[in-house]
Amino acid sequence: MLKKLDEIKSKAILELGSVGGLNSLEDWRVRYLGRKGELTNVLRGLASLSLDERKVIGASANEVKALLEAHLEQKRAALKEHELSMSIELGRIDVTLPGHPLPCGRLHPTTQIVREICAAFVAMGFQVVEGPEVEWDYYNFEALNIPPYHPARDMWATLWIDYETETGERPMLLRTHTSPMQIRVMERTRPPVRVVVPGKVYRYEATDATHESMFYQIEGLAVDENITLADLKGTLYEFARRLFGQERKVRFRCDYFPFVEPGVELAIDCFLCGGRGCRVCNETGWIEIMGAGMVHPNVLKRVGYDPSIYTGFAFGLGVERIIMLKYGIDDIRLFYGNDLRFLRQF
Ligand code: DAH
Asked: How far is the CA of 180 from the centre of ligand 1 (A)?
């Protein structure tokens, strides 16, 4: 039987040499390794042998089987390669066709606009800085002229951090705006100050077409000698022109923010309805994009700036609203819904 195995092995390898295509390779496989193939027959015959013979012949048969299988795979790979080169030669594969496109990532629309806005201010001499999203009550409120229990705190629906001091106070929160960075920047620099601060802010709020519980703001601050409200207006007009083009209408109105005096609100005419009133602009025709004002003397004093020497202006804008204006998006929830059909458009 060992001799028979040897014969099968030599014959199979010899025949394999003259196999010239994948079809005849399959015939070869069936003939030797198939269910009724020659080698399989030998393995079947083992049952009638004694235990000792079975051991020796079984091992040898399995060896031959593994060898033939290895030869089979080798031959198959060689034939495939050959077929491929033949089809290139015959022109059946058009190698001039473009390849499969590689998926390519891109920046989130918010990131793109944050960069664009910052670039507009950088061109006007501002520096870009960032600050913490988990903030102390002191920076988010108190130093901004909003003492504890002052009703102005109601302007920001706050998410408090579960952290208590020994005296039972809860002084840590998720910043509700980027304004705390005004204080942090002034604390560590002397005038002149010109910074913009992009970043995430958080509000404890129900979401709808124009509200999200997490969104982006960009804060701005300029403090120096002789800064006036005219500087504020000129800077923000210039910004609006750079971002929205000459034709966009801009509106300044008085507004209240505890850390500025006087305070203003800047609005742009609604892109969607052209000013007639719709869901996005809350039927007013205008979309408020930022608050601004002259830095309150109390705020300057708090950081050790002398308000009789230094004045300044500050502003804070909602980034998503600006993107909505620019591209005509009517629902802020699309930004962080992670729907690729939306994101791929930018
Ligand atoms: N921090 C304000 C808010 O989130 C926006 C704001 C208003 C920022 C007036 C300012 C400012 O710097 O001067 O509602």
From this structure: 10
Write down the mean pLDDT value for the chain: 90
Catalytic status, residue 156: yes
Whether residue 151 is preceded by a cis peptide bond, meaning omega within 30 degrees of 0, is: no
* Region 109-343: CATH code: 3.30.930.10
Question: Does the pTM exceed 0.85?
Answer: no
Q: Which atom of ligand 1 is nearest to the CA of 315?
A: 12
Domain ranges of the chain: 2-90, 109-343
Q: Rounded CA gap, 84 and 82, in Å? A: 5
Give the residue ranges of DSSP H helices in the chain.
2-17, 22-33, 38-45, 51-89, 109-122, 137-140, 180-188, 229-244, 297-302, 319-327, 340-343
Q: What is the pLDDT of residue 325?
A: 77
Q: Provide mean pLDDT across the span 207-212.
A: 88
Residue 244 scores a pLDDT above 80: no
Distance 217 CA to ligand 1 centre (A): 9
For residues 26-35, give the mean pLDDT: 87
How many C-beta atoms surround the C-beta of residue 128 within 10 A?
16
Contacts of 310 (CB under 8 A, 6+ apart): 191, 223, 224, 225, 227, 300
Closest protein CA for atom 7 of ligand 1: 291
Amino acid 256: pLDDT: 95
**Across residues 22-51, what is the average pLDDT?**
84
Single out the catalytic residue among 193, 260, 267, 303. 260
